[in-house]
Design a protein that fits this description.
single chain, TIM Barrel, 2 domains, 8-stranded mixed sheet, two-stranded antiparallel sheet, 9 helices, 10 strands, globular, binds iron/sulfur cluster
């Protein structure tokens, strides 16, 4: 009986949040970036796509909030504003994740954030860490935080621990964000930390057992985690994708839920390396090996999330 209820929980899908990757473009090219963002990255939603994905989110009764992320969503400010306006018109909660590059002085911080405050966003997550650009970023984040607080916007700072101080999987006390070694972090930073045997990575550490949120990128990919697609929202309604999803039968999510990256490697006969930095590092590396396999065609996408950035819209 107990086992049965665990299985039910593992296969639970009740979508409450849609995270919109407005663009893969960013001013920075951080070593820890999961999504390989950079100034030259391709892939930005059109206005029609932003409106479309909000409408699709509204079509799912359990969805109560949307987040705008990137890349850097403030790079496409009119699109961001339109998306927020549409979501708020229908009473969805809205969050935005930014590195606050626009907060060049106090007046600028107020100018950019005031319209968002007037539309009633409920979270501004400010991203700052040891891996961002030049050091001025902390000042910009600080200015944006002050302006947001004055405007009554709830804020949080996402601060990633510097890799040199990191003892993977990172502190759990909320003092710093946990750095997971997927995307560019797997390639650039995994070599800098102490590794553990592959067999220890028998669970996916981040995604909750119940699938409560997805990310949708500019190509329409509906992502369970960065680089793991469950469908394409430009080709099939998100509502239908979610209704048809059986996590246990999904070729990648199924093994990950059953036994983490170790099970994923074993299920597909991939010979693992002896050690990895963390579960995400193993997961990412195994998935890179699997990308050419017919059995997972169209699932381990887009190229952008595997560091192949020549993809054009
Ligand atoms: S183990 Fe894989 S699916 Fe789970 S959080 Fe890490 S990268 Fe994502």
């Amino acid at each position: 009986m107990r086992f049965r209820s665990m299985v039910c929980q593992m296969s639970s899908v009740e979508l409450s949040g849609v995270h919109i990757l407005l663009t893969y473009k960013c001013l920075y090219e951080c070593d820890h970036c999961f999504v390989w963002s950079s100034p030259g990255a391709k892939g930005t939603m059109t206005l029609a796509q932003v409106e479309n994905i909000i409408e699709q989110a509204l079509d799912i009764p359990t969805v109560t909030r949307v987040y705008f992320e990137g890349g850097e969503p403030f790079l496409f400010y009119p699109l961001l504003r339109r998306g927020i306006e549409l979501a708020r018109k229908h009473s969805l909660e809205v969050g935005v994740v930014t590195n606050a590059y626009f907060a060049t002085d106090d007046g600028a911080a107020d100018l950019w954030l005031r319209p968002l405050s007037e539309m009633g966003i409920s979270d501004l997550s400010l991203s700052t860490d040891a891996h961002h650009g030049t050091g001025d970023e902390k000042d910009m984040v600080s200015r944006a935080r002050t302006a947001a607080e004055k405007l009554g916007i709830p804020t949080g700072v996402i601060e990633i621990e510097g890799v040199e101080q990191l003892s993977c999987p990172g502190p759990k006390d909320g003092s710093k964000g946990q750095l997971c070694f997927r995307g560019r972090a797997a390639e650039k930073l995994a070599g800098k930390v102490k590794k553990k045997p592959w067999k220890t990575f028998d669970a996916c550490p981040e995604e909750p057992p119940a699938i409560g949120r997805v990310h949708v990128d500019p190509y329409g990919n509906v992502l369970f985690c960065q680089g793991i697609s469950i469908g394409n929202a430009w080709k099939k309604p998100l509502k239908k994708i979610m209704a048809e999803l059986d996590p246990e039968k999904h070729p990648i999510i199924g093994p990950l839920m059953k036994g983490g990256p170790a099970e994923l490697a074993s299920r597909f006969g991939v010979t693992p390396k002896r050690t990895y930095a963390d579960a995400c590092h193993m997961c990412y590396e195994v998935r890179r090996v699997l990308r050419d396999r017919q059995a997972v065609k169209g699932i381990l996408v887009p190229d952008q999330l595997y560091g192949i950035t020549s993809e054009s819209r």
